[in-house]
Specification:
Structural class: mainly alpha
Number of domains: 2
Mean pLDDT: 92
Strand content: 5-15%
Largest sheet: 3 strands, antiparallel
Helix content: 40-55%
Order of helices and strands: HHHHHHHHHHHHEHHHEHEEE
Distance between the termini: 35 Å
Strand order of the largest sheet: 3-4-5
Length: 349
């Protein structure tokens, strides 16, 4: 555990520098594609522009809450000033409320998906996979969600945290009470930095004749949510609320290197909840040390969602249904007031 918890500036830089460079590269390509659209060639150039925006948004969407998550844990960099610096960089570009998130995420780890105690993830998570509107918005943009994020940040800059954004307003009011003046002040100061900074950057782009950069820089992290959803939703969807065992309320899966890179290895989510002090780059090694305690993980996003979709379907039919993974043989696990025993793959309550 001592080795697994060891932090490294070099390994953290190996994550943030390529990811920030990828953001800059795809933003540049999208802008060049836009500049190449003319009346004479729009039939061929417009699809290229849309493809460039799709790629840029799909990759940049991981800035919003994913990069900030691990940096908020203060585990990637050995030098804490670097954790704080890059947390602010990612949070600025994605309009991310890292101050409220830090407070909320402590609660999320202490009382994971417990009703009325964890406002960060509330189970069951309803995902309308059969809705065409839902699918189209995940593949393109959900204007309502973008508006909510911007509006909540603007109001927070004036000290009003009651509006829904990344979190529900009522949850923020609960975890950032007025009595905690220091955190409230830090929260509003960060909101002012984001709002004033984003307006300043947008003004420079517009007045210099490069208004399209507002789309790919100021709002580049707020569209094409599909890949983030595929990677992030498995964390808790379909699992058991109100249990103390992370193996029952959290899911681990494995995937190829590129989604894992974008997702900061959070596919190892059971392990992350068990040992949140382990940096993300060491999480792939952690299952080897605690394999005897872990349920079997699915391998690949495709296999993971083949498992999840029937669970979601059954939850639509039965609101009380939860997925209970098969745990190591002959081990009893307490769920609410009942004990579920797992013997040779069979469940008996």
């Amino acid at each position: 555990m001592s080795k697994l918890m060891r932090k490294s500036d070099t390994r953290a830089f190996a994550q943030v520098i390529p990811q920030l460079s990828l953001f800059a590269a795809t933003a540049t390509l999208a802008n060049l594609a836009f500049l190449n659209v003319h009346k004479s060639n729009w039939r061929s150039s417009l699809p290229v522009l849309l493809l460039a925006l799709f790629v840029h948004g799909s990759l940049s969407r991981f800035f919003f809450g994913i990069a900030g998550h691990e940096l908020a844990h203060k585990t990637p960099f050995r030098t804490q000033a670097l954790n704080d610096f890059f947390l602010r960089v990612y949070s600025f570009f994605s309009w991310f409320d890292y101050v409220g998130y830090r407070v909320s995420h402590v609660r999320h780890h202490q009382v994971t998906v417990h009703s009325d105690e964890d406002g960060e993830v509330v189970l069951p998570q309803g995902l309308d996979w059969h809705g065409i509107r839902f699918i189209l918005m995940e593949l393109t943009v959900n204007p309502g969600k973008v508006f909510d994020v911007v509006r909540s940040m603007v109001f927070a800059a004036w000290g009003d945290i009651s509006h829904d954004g990344f979190f529900r307003g009522e949850w923020l009011v609960r975890i950032l009470p007025e009595s905690n003046e220091a955190v409230r002040r830090e929260h509003s100061n960060w909101a002012r930095v984001v709002v004033v900074g984003q307006v300043a950057v947008a003004t420079v782009f517009i007045t210099s004749g490069h208004w399209f950069l507002v789309i790919v820089v100021n709002f580049g992290c707020h569209y094409c949510n599909w890949l983030l959803l595929l990677c992030g939703a498995p964390q808790h969807v379909g699992m058991s609320p109100n249990v103390a065992d992370f193996r029952l309320c959290t899911r681990t899966y494995t995937c190829s290197w590129f989604p894992a890179f974008l997702y900061w290895n959070m596919q190892y989510h059971v392990e992350h909840h068990m040992f949140p002090a382990v940096p993300f780059y060491n999480l792939p090694r952690l299952p080897e040390a605690i394999q005897h305690d872990l349920p079997t993980a699915t391998h690949g996003l495709w296999a993971t969602w083949k498992e999840i979709l029937p669970i979601l379907k059954r939850q639509r039919e039965d609101g009380n249904y939860v997925f209970v993974p098969r745990l190591p043989v002959n081990e009893g696990v307490r769920v609410d007031d009942s004990v579920i025993r797992f013997e040779a793959g069979q469940e008996e309550e």
